[in-house]
Design a protein that fits this description.
Blueprint lengths: L2 E5 L2 E4 L11 E6 L2 E6 L4 E6 L2 H13 L1 H12 L12
Antiparallel strand pairs: 1-2, 2-3, 3-4, 4-5
Length: about 90
């Protein structure tokens, strides 16, 4: 599962697997926590993160929704996703 971005100890990954299940999403890892984020709605749909990290990830999601959806289409076609600018 390629890492597409990292910031403030948060790792963002997207499965590189054709036929990955909808909705379009990515996986977030922070310390011992992990979560799955729905790209179109910018909501956590599984798992959990601490409050501050949740706010950072959801803000980053909103800023990069178009790029995240482009990556989703790539992985659905069996192609490798590209890196996305971290939150600064």
């Amino acid at each position: 599962m390629p890492t597409i971005s990292m910031f403030y100890g948060i790792i963002i990954r997207m499965y590189f697997a054709p036929g990955e299940h909808p909705p379009p999403h990515f996986h977030v890892y922070y310390s011992e926590c992990k979560a799955t984020v729905n790209i179109p709605t910018a909501e956590i749909i599984a798992g959990n993160l601490p409050g501050k990290q949740t706010k950072l990830v959801l803000a980053w999601t909103e800023l990069h929704q178009d790029e995240l959806m482009a990556n989703w289409h790539l992985v659905m076609n069996g192609e490798e996703p590209f890196r996305i600018q971290p939150l600064q």
